[in-house]
Design brief:
alpha+beta; six-stranded mixed β-sheet; 13 strands
Length: 203
Amino acid sequence: MAAPSQAMAHPHASIDVGVQVRFDSSARIVALRMTWLFDEIYSAYVTQGLTFSGGEAIDAQRSGRILAGMMKNLARFHYMTRVEAGTEAMDFGIPTETAIDFKGRRLELSFTLPFATPVSAREAPVTYSVYDPTYYIEMLHAEDAGAIRLANAPADCRYTLQPPQPDPARVREAAALDRTQSAGNGLGAFFAERVTIRCDRPR
């Protein structure tokens, strides 16, 4: 009896997220390196049977079109990523190092999201969230220890992850939506994890 209601409720797909927070030689955050691992069913839907062998695409032209289409769609949603330095929202440059691959039957999308302006986590905490604003897809950091990494970070930098804490009304709202309905671009934020990066000020 539970299966039909679960099939109707948002979200309808899931992505395991990995993020490498990249620092420059001046201890500023300059980019987020994203690795998104889609669930098997959504992977099959997105790629429509495209397979990979030995790390190389069987049909490079087709896989290139899929990658280009995914990145174009993500741009419309600000790459499903929100970054704040203190209370100021950060803008991004054009993504680089874009690629798709398969891990077993699961599609993996990777790309580097550069900041339009590098930001110091010493001046104010830097917080990021990765989420589908419509909550059609649930996006949570993978459970392995390397899901969040600080690359080239000073020793006094650290991060904390705050799990989502949606209120019951938002949970009911998501549960009432079927595949043909949308809550707009606001629901997903209530189900998003928040990662905060802090670096101590020099003494």
